[in-house]
Amino acid sequence: MFQRILIANRGEIALRVIRACRELGVECVCVYSKADEGAPYLELADEAVCIGPGPARESYLDIPRIIAAAEITSADAIHPGYGFLAENAHFAEVCRDCNIEFIGPSPEAMARLGDKVSAKRIAREAKVPVFPGTDGAIDDLDEAAEVAKKIGYPVIIKASAGGGGRGMRICRNEHELRQNVSSARQEAESAFGNGAVYIEKFLESARHVEVQIIGDKHGNAVHLYERDCSVQRRHQKLVEEAPAPHVEPRRRDEVCKAAAKLIKKAEYSGAATVEFLMDDKQNFYMLEVNTRVQVEHPVSEMITGVDIVRTMILVASGEPIPFKQRDIKIRGHAIECRINAEDPDRNFAPFPGKITRFDPPGGPGVRMDTHCVAGYVVPPTYDSMIGKLIVHDDDRRSAITRMERALDELHIEPIKTTVGLHRRLMQNHAFIEGGVDIHFLERLLKK
After folding, report:
1. pLDDT band at 139 (very low <50, low <70, confident <90, very high)
2. Residue 389 in contact with residue 336, Cβ under 8 Å?
3. pLDDT computed for residue 115 by the predictor
4. d(Cα 373, Cα 11) in Å, to the nearest integer?
5. pLDDT tens, residue by residue, 97-110
6. Which has the closest alpha carbon to 223: 210, 211, 237?
7. Are 243 and 169 contacting, i.e. CB atoms less than 8 angstroms apart?
8. In what order do the strands lie in the sheet with 77-79?
9. SS3 labels along 94-136
10. Quick one: DSSP state of residue 296?
């Protein structure tokens, strides 16, 4: 086991990793930027090191500064959390070159699955369903137009190296396809440093279903069942739940086994999420693989009893996964609401500022993952998520009721947050009945 882990992240996920380290008896070092100076969670670390000014490119994205912090504090491993450098294969390679264990996949496995074109190729080899489309990045527009004509419009242009909606364009005819490829390439190049794009069939109505997997260095891969993340805005998730509602047991088994098979094929170690779109007949197609721990990992923890972050650390240290697939059972239902410092009434504009009142909810089956307290100042520099409210109960209807109660107890003032929107969602008939797709929230917000 590691002696000391450096956490190359901030906020809620940094605190989550600190807690896992404490329970394993491992010392931890937190890096922080000037914008996060004085954040309460830093006091829980054994050591805290400032790595630069507020802008992420000068701190949390600065590889030399993070490696230097690890070396001067004698850290023998780095946990990247999510975001920032978590899916940067070059960073993982630099860690290895410096004899620091990267708590995640090898650079090779990350590169294989982090690139969507490569991931689709491996999925085909593993006989995992993928969307029809171009076999690789678009090199010839005429050839892409032929593929689109063959699979049928609408199609979607996607960035090979990224996600979050950047570099993504929906095209309903050949004119739109030819018009959008260039702009998609430019956006992808700007966002990810890689302008490669590809096309695939676009589903007008689909659910976002993803499978949580953990692999180890001994060739094992275990799934922790699936989550539904269909409630999203501009490809950014707002509500996640596990298990996915109204999925037939046979389909659940098929999609979970397919995800585990893909991870084994890629010789992957660590936490990963294989994302799928599922149509109204419950046919599923792989979207991409996230080669890191996901924001929404707590709902999978709640229904399986597995501590995903702690398990990541164990397998990174060389231990086999401490459980078998037969040990993993679904227990009840869990829902997560992302609490963002945003104003839903002003097109979700970020709302940084000082929190003067912060009352988190409690009681049976309620978990609040947050780094915020009264007096904390939400900086304008980073992602607007300030916490995650997670509930668990015996069944989905009970979990929705529990979430309503927890949201009523949660008070964050005076900044604007998404709490009110989540209350509205929990009372929405379509959501309660589990009849949502990836465009559900956009339709709701137009009303």
Report:
1. confident
2. yes
3. 87
4. 12
5. 999 999 999 999 99
6. 211
7. no
8. 47-50, 27-32, 4-7, 77-79, 101-102
9. HHHHCCCEECCCCHHHHHHHHCHHHHHHHHHHCCCCECCECCC
10. T
Return the pLDDT at 137: 87
Is beta strand 4-7 parallel, antiparallel or unpaired with respect to 27-32? parallel
φ/ψ of residue 371, rounded to 5: -105, 5
How does pLDDT run across 338-348, given as a tens digit for each residue?
999 999 999 99
Check residue 223 and give its pLDDT. Answer: 98
Roughly how many angstroms between the first and final C-alpha of the chain, as a whole number? Answer: 54
For the record, the structure tokens of 193 come out as 């440093």
| CA gap 326, 254 in Å, rounded | 15
DSSP state of 89: H
CA angle (128, 282, 120) in 5-degree steps:
25
pLDDT tier at 397, thresholds 50, 70, 90: very high
206-219 mean pLDDT:
97
Domains of the chain: 4-103 (3.40.50.20), 130-201 (3.30.1490.20), 207-446 (3.30.470.20)
- Given the structure tokens 């959390």, which residue do they identify? 81
Could you say which of 65, 185, 252, 292 is catalytic? Answer: 292
In the chain, the amino acid numbered 18 is I
Tally of residues, the chain:
447
Q: Are 302 and 390 in contact (CB under 8 A)?
A: yes
Q: Which amino acid is at 403?
A: M
User: Is 408 in contact with 337 (CB distance < 8 Å)?
Assistant: no
- The model carries a pTM of 0.92
Catalytic residue flag (residue 252): no
Could you give the CA distance from residue 12 to residue 50 in angstroms, rounded to a whole number? 18
Looking at every residue in the chain, the average pLDDT score rounds to 95
Cis bond upstream, residue 414 (ω within 30): yes
Q: For strand 236-242 and strand 333-340, is the pairing parallel, antiparallel, or unpaired?
A: antiparallel
User: Cα dist. 39→36, 58, 69, 348 in Å?
Assistant: 6, 18, 18, 25
Given its phi and psi angles, is residue 49 left (phi above 0), alpha (psi -120 to 50 degrees) or beta? beta
